[in-house]
């Protein structure tokens, strides 16, 4: 006879195990200590007898136990062993728990961080972007279960906010995380690879910078800047070398050979992760010697005010330009545009200019061409001629 709630409740534990049968293999086993557990006896697809636990009573009610029995018998009708099916589900759940997007992203980040140069913002930037825009939505989902449409929604949130550059970087980070997951056998498909066609195209705007006609005004404003001699020299050197502001801020005296007029920036501090030689015109050498009298006792050219082991703030050069009246017109990185445009108008070869900017040439040319153009009559002569042109404005200030 099928079990009833009354029969279950009135059955008391005895000195031996008591078994109450509900039919079709379902049993309630009552132990001498009073515990009650559901068991299902069945025949495996291979013909062998087996038993599986369906949980404890009353946590699993009679009705729920019968539902589990029905589910198990459905599997058996398909030739599937319910115990093996349950074990497989547990394995998949454990696999999914270990392979959520958050877990894979953190593993990717730990793998990539040592490859990124120590002074780069990329490690912090990537993790901050993921924590702010991805983890709250799909961070705890199995990486293989996140649909392309969900990624599209995440990226479009940034589009709607007008944060196109941030969207581009986040798209790149997430795409690389999927590549890492595929390589390590935790994913089979990269849903971010083909999303570009569904996103709005955005043409990256160049950094604000003055025109060649406005260059004398900028030069004279820098020469007259009296708030910080150190910052004034830094702004001059940006125009004399065309290096990136971050490369300038973190420059160390040990990198400079003033005798031979060259600044050798190590690969770990370069955006392209390759060492860069910067020819120093005589005017730059003079500025560096004057700066050395101020900061030569420190390792950094531009030590911070409160901690000399760290460089000045990344806003120092920009704030100085704002004080000079160039807010929205020119930023520190814009000096690279000014130098590149000026050198082009002076007729210097494109390869020399790109090398000075530490740019990789496009296509196959960039793959096979690694010339630094540091012969005396190449980049050094080019930058000396540029400095002479520039200092016509400095000396007239």
Automatic annotation (TrEMBL):
Pfam families: Arm-DNA-bind_3, Phage_int_M, Phage_integrase
Domain Tyr recombinase: 205-383
Record key words, sorted: DNA integration, DNA recombination, DNA-binding
Keyword Transport in annotation: no
CDD domains linked to this entry: INT_P4_C
Gene Ontology BP terms: DNA integration; DNA recombination
GO molecular function list: DNA binding
Gene3D superfamilies: 1.10.150.130, Integrase, DNA-binding domain (3.30.160.390), Intergrase catalytic core (1.10.443.10)
Protein family per UniProt: Belongs to the 'phage' integrase family.
Name of the protein in question: DUF4102 domain-containing protein
Species of provenance: Billgrantia pellis
Taxonomic placement: Bacteria, Pseudomonadati, Pseudomonadota, Gammaproteobacteria, Oceanospirillales
């Amino acid at each position: 006879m099928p079990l009833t709630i009354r029969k279950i409740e009135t059955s008391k534990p005895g000195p031996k195990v008591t078994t109450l049968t509900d039919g079709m293999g379902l049993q309630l086993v009552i132990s001498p200590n009073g515990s009650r557990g559901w068991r299902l006896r069945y025949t495996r697809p291979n013909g062998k007898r087996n038993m599986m636990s369906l949980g404890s009573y009353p946590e699993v009610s009679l009705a729920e136990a019968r539902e589990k029995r029905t589910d198990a018998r459905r599997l058996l009708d398909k030739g599937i062993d319910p115990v093996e099916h349950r074990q497989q589900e547990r394995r998949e759940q454990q696999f999914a728990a270990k392979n959520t997007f958050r877990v894979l992203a953190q593993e990717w980040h730990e793998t990539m961080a040592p490859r990124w140069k120590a002074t780069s913002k990329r490690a912090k930037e990537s993790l901050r972007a993921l924590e702010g825009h991805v983890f709250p939505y799909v961070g705890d989902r199995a990486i293989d279960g996140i649909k392309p449409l969900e990624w599209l929604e995440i990226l479009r949130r940034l589009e709607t906010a007008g944060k196109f550059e941030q969207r581009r970087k986040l798209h790149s980070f997430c795409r690389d995380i999927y590549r890492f997951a595929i390589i390590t056998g935790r994913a089979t498909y990269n849903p971010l690879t083909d999303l570009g066609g569904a996103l709005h195209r955005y043409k990256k705007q160049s950094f604000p910078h003055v025109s060649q006609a406005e260059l004398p005004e900028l030069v004279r404003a820098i020469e007259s800047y009296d708030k910080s001699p150190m910052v004034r020299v830094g702004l001059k050197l940006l125009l004399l070398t065309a290096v990136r502001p971050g490369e300038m801020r973190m420059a160390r005296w040990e990198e400079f050979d003033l005798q031979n007029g060259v600044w050798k920036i190590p690969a770990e501090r370069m955006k392209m992760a390759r060492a860069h030689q910067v020819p120093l015109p005589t005017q730059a050498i003079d500025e560096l010697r004057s700066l050395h009298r101020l900061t030569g006792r420190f390792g950094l050219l531009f030590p911070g005010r409160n901690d000399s082991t760290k460089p000045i703030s990344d806003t120092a050069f920009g704030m100085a330009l704002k004080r000079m009246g160039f807010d929205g017109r020119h930023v520190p990185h814009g000096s690279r545009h000014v130098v590149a445009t000026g050198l082009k108008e002076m007729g210097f070869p494109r390869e020399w200019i790109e090398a000075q900017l530490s740019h990789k040439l496009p296509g196959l040319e960039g793959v096979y061409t690694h010339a630094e153009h540091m012969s005396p009559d190449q980049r050094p002569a080019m930058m000396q001629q540029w400095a002479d042109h520039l200092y016509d404005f400095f000396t007239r200030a």
